[in-house]
């Protein structure tokens, strides 16, 4: 009995020793890496010379705010100086302009007015601020082309550039009364047409059509100045029918309809309240539209 017990104890100790030895061998054996770990190791090994660790805070040179401002200003100056200079507008060659002027005067004396006109225009294009060129061109237009108004404008321009230009001053003294008389005649003609229009009854159908067409043109040109691309016929369709025009933006439609509403508002105030109410009240009502 004692032998059996001793044998069991001995066998248990041997088995335990084998287990301990086997476990110690497993700890010393390196584990196999997974495919992901192997791929990651290869990537890090491939780019080990590409990525560098950041330096410590003590080794980073940080410039002060004032120094950094100076650096930025210097960089901006360098960028501005590196830009190519803007192209300077080429000045007219006065010598070439005077040569063209002399050739034009010769052609004028020879009676070749068409060639002289082109030479004068060429001289003015080369030297648009030369008083002599402007004065001679004005004399040519006055005496040859019978264009006193344009000649007077050229004389006035020459005097504005050179007030002591005697010949331009003499020419202006001659043409100024003629231009004033022409202006008075044209203004009188306009007044006569206005008076003739005023004698037409307001119920006349032709007058109503003319006023309506003038209204359409006024709206068309007013919005066109601001960049509206509607044609006159499209503007007329919008004002008469209120229908939208295909291919045009809502902003352009709103500009036409808004101006139409504003003109109708002003017309109603002027026609109905000008004599019954104080003008100041009407202006106050108008100011409410913008508040």
From TrEMBL:
The keyword Signal applies. Gene3D superfamilies: Fido-like domain, Tetratricopeptide repeat domain. Residues 1-17 form the signal peptide. SUPFAM superfamilies: TPR-like. The record marks 226 as: Important for autoinhibition of adenylyltransferase activity. Keywords: Signal. This is Aspartyl/asparaginy/proline hydroxylase domain-containing protein. It comes from Cloeon dipterum.
